[in-house]
Automatic annotation (TrEMBL):
Segments traversing the membrane: none
Cofactors demanded by this protein: [4Fe-4S] cluster
PROSITE patterns registered for this protein in UniProt: ENDONUCLEASE_III_1, ENDONUCLEASE_III_2
Cofactor note: Binds 1 [4Fe-4S] cluster.
Protein name: Endonuclease III
Record-stated family: Belongs to the Nth/MutY family.
Keyword Lyase attributed: yes
Its job: DNA repair enzyme that has both DNA N-glycosylase activity and AP-lyase activity. The DNA N-glycosylase activity releases various damaged pyrimidines from DNA by cleaving the N-glycosidic bond, leaving an AP (apurinic/apyrimidinic) site. The AP-lyase activity cleaves the phosphodiester bond 3' to the AP site by a beta-elimination, leaving a 3'-terminal unsaturated sugar and a product with a terminal 5'-phosphate.
Any one Gene Ontology molecular-function term assigned to this protein's record: class I DNA-(apurinic or apyrimidinic site) endonuclease activity
PANTHER family named among the record's database cross-references: A/G-SPECIFIC ADENINE GLYCOSYLASE/ENDONUCLEASE III (PTHR10359), ENDONUCLEASE III (PTHR10359:SF18)
Amino acid sequence: MTARPAAGSAAPTRRTRRPRSKKAAKEQALAVDELLARQWPDARCELDFTTPLELLVATVLSAQTTDKRVNQVTPTLFRRYPDAAAYAGAPREELEEVLRPLGFYRAKAASLQGLGAALVADHAGEVPDTLEELVKLPGVGRKTANVVLGNAFGIPGITVDTHVGRLARRLGWSREKDAVKVEKDIAALLPPQEWTMACHRLIFHGRRVCHSRKPACGACVLAEVCPSFGEGETDREKAAALVTV
DNA sequence: ATCCCGAGGG
DNA sequence: CCCTCTGGAT
């Protein structure tokens, strides 16, 4: 435990707000979640799928690729490879041809083959519904596993991708850069039933407003509750944001 | 040039 | 921790 300055004393000048109580932190997180829910009522998983296997495959393919482009290849993919065994037995070149527009197509083709083989070998061809089992599958990391849990099985999962990690830090929810630690920090702030949708909202917001390089703070509904408001903008933009608010 | 809801390997 | 895998949009 490190000593903290007494409340109300001449506060040390720091960029971030002084440490809040656990209760206040949770209230801020809930407020953020509600504001984002209002702003992005259509936030959801944007990958097209009808089964856990389809979502698992689509999520593996979504690495460094837009969901829109994944959705362009998955109809062909799902028709051609209807089950885990089909991916395991697919000719490598045939798989690569379908995946080529996505980027990383050789690695992704290998992932899908290995994934199909592992599902057949260890799970009777079915997609497991626990984090531990999912992350053991080749090509499936913690982020992919949580997407499948939350969106195919309805099991609360926190998806820490580039957006969720960045927004969690800007919102003061975490100071960590390690995704697993960020996940724990978010888990302590929001109730499990909010986890999956909260992540979708954070991702929507990250893509449309809270950009990595040039966040549009002037257009952000979280301006009043965000400890990072105004950071990362040019002076001109900061001034514009202030007069707009 | 930089960015996309990453994962695995060195 | 870094690097690589990859291509299309902006």
